[in-house]
Design a protein that fits this description.
about 280 residues; mainly beta; Jelly Rolls; 7-stranded antiparallel beta sheet; about 45% strand
Length: about 280
């Protein structure tokens, strides 16, 4: 039986959410192989002929040679994500001389490539030199062309250039696309490789960083190296798959964990990683 698209969408909206709520730590990346994960590249779809996503010395290595992502097969809700990453030295294509760029998109909505044919619709915790912990809201389209509307509300102020910056107690704005910058993003930020701002929380190139994304119902909080850097409310959707982007910059990931809310190990403010690179 073929149901009208509007009726089908309403039935899907009313269906119970089967996303997993962690009761113990879940490690989507097991450190040995890519089992439990799915890759997607803009041109090759689910094939990865260039080995953009591999495992090296127990780490997830993202070469950056392409646009796309690696994602969980399962859908999740209400978790504390801990991602430890560091940039590699390689950049590619049109971003050879631009800031190293990647990101984590949570609450992803199928199909693969639903956001611009490259990523999935959802809410991104940005990873970019000088802008890690920004929010980017990614709306998209389903296979039939119907819209996937993502949204997030944040308390903000405007910077010198009129961009929205997270500011607790500020004006509440709801966005369905675009970004909310983390509180200390340098207003003089430039899209150049190696960029560092005056107040950056990110550690220098070659050192590990800990990005935490806390998804608690419809609230999302981004922390970087132990510091709360951004917060949003009324997230829609509030569950889904989780992806890590490849966006023409090399990235290493050694920790990708989902903890039950309130159970994640505490990260000291000003966290500095002293282990070997």
């Amino acid at each position: 039986m073929n149901l009208p698209a509007a009726l089908l969408l309403s039935l899907l909206a009313a269906a119970p959410d089967t996303a997993i709520r962690p009761t113990e730590v879940i490690r989507p990346f097991n450190g040995r192989n890519l089992d439990g994960l799915v890759t997607w590249l803009r041109e090759e779809k689910h094939e990865d002929p260039r080995g953009v996503f591999t495992v090296q010395n127990g780490m997830l290595h993202i070469s950056g040679d392409g646009l796309g992502y690696i994602r969980t097969k399962d859908r999740y809700r209400d978790y504390h994500l801990v991602l430890e990453f560091r940039w590699g030295g390689k950049t590619w294509g049109k971003r050879v001389e631009r800031s190293r760029d990647s990101g984590v998109i949570v609450h992803c909505v199928q199909p693969d490539g639903s956001y611009a044919g490259i990523f999935m619709a959802g809410i991104e915790a940005q990873m970019i030199e000088g802008g890690t912990a920004d929010f980017i809201v990614c709306s998209g389209k389903r296979a039939d062309g119907s819209p996937i509307v993502s949204s997030l509300t944040a308390e903000t102020t405007k910077d010198r250039d009129g961009e929205s910056v997270w500011h607790p107690g500020g004006q509440r704005v709801t966005i369905h696309g675009g970004r909310v910058n983390w509180y200390g993003r340098d207003p003089d930020w430039k899209d150049v490789v190696g960029y560092r701002g005056r107040e950056d929380l990110e550690n220098p190139l070659g050192q590990w960083n800990r990005l935490e994304v806390i998804c608690d119902g419809r609230r999302i909080e981004n922390r970087l190296n132990g510091v709360k850097a951004n917060e949003g409310f009324d997230a829609d959707p509030s569950s889904g798959q989780i992806l890590i982007q490849t966006e023409l910059a090399e990235v290493f990931v050694r920790r990708f964990e989902l903890w039950p809310l309130g159970k994640a190990p505490k990260t000291p403010a000003g966290w500095k990683d002293s282990s070997p690179h």
